[in-house]
Amino acid sequence: MRTPLCVGNWKMQGTIAEGRALATAIRDGLKRPRGVDVVICPPFTALAAVNEVLSGSPLRLGAQNCHWEAAGAHTGEISLPMLVEVGCRYVLAGHSERRREMCETDDQINRKVQAALVHGVTPILCVGETADERRQGLTFTTIEGQLRAGLAGLTPDAIARIVLAYEPVWAIGTGINATPAQAAEVHGYLRGLLSELSSKDAAGAIRILYGGSVKAENADALAAEPEIDGVLVGGASLNPGGFIAIAKKTARAGATGKGE
Ligand code: PEP
User: Which residue has the CA at smallest separation from atom 3 of ligand 1?
Assistant: First the structure.
């Protein structure tokens, strides 16, 4: 069955020294995480330092963004070979903050997903509706559009290698998380679409994470939903104790809920 995945997204926060200290505390608190994979996504400037800290541990390194080209005249961008060189195994694609603030399009996100797979990096494709879209009954239309566009042109085998994250925009950084039932409903819908785009078996193996105001207090209930295969954690991943607790709860609840 699917091993739950717990991803920490530090966003644009922390010096290199702070990143090293935070990663060290998380690593030391999760020496042998059982039944959960853990990924940390620091800012670009801290990737090398955090990679050193995580080296030899079961924790993996991820980046928050990438460019789809391997190299070239793209001022200010970071390529996948550069991320691989610094130890990244995962990369976020289509986070709502980038869709909104950097005007990232579905087409660009699709190129990032494709490029990540070409370079052996697992893309974590983020989809999610705004509060207005939910109010207007457009939740499923929105996420379906983002999913289909994000995976356009990918073979079923390639789709099987992604991680998907449902992140309702209204829940990110607001302290208001989707209820486990709300998230599970969307996850079930997304898995049905994945099945259509790849195969039932492949869709059954793809991890669908929930993200949006996850904290130690709500992690148990979210992870207990069989359709929720882990969490993408923003603010709470900056607190080592909180993030370690979330990872452990994700594992425990996942193991029970998914019959592992
Ligand atoms: C995120 O950054 O993807 C996120 C879910 O943030 P937060 O946990 O702070 O809501």
Answer: 234
9 CA: nearest ligand 1 atom: 2
CA 161/CA 258 separation, integer angstroms = 20
DSSP character for 46? Answer: G
pLDDT of residue 255: 53
The C-alpha atoms of residue 233 and residue 11 are separated, in whole angstroms, by 10
Q: What pLDDT digit, counting tens, does each position of 66-84 carry?
A: 999 999 999 999 999 999 9
> Ligand 1 center to residue 237 CA distance, Å?
9
- CB of residue 109 inside a 6 A radius of ligand 1: no
pLDDT of residue 1: 81
Q: How far apart are CA 256 and CA 130, in angstroms?
A: 32
* pTM for the full predicted model: 0.96
Tell me the catalytic residues: 95, 167
- Write a three-state SS string for 144-174: HHHHHHHCCCCCHHHHCCCEEEECCHHHCCC
**Other residues' Cβ atoms within 10 Å of the Cβ of residue 149:** 15
- Do residues 29 and 241 lie in contact, with contact meaning Cβ atoms separated by under 8 Å? yes
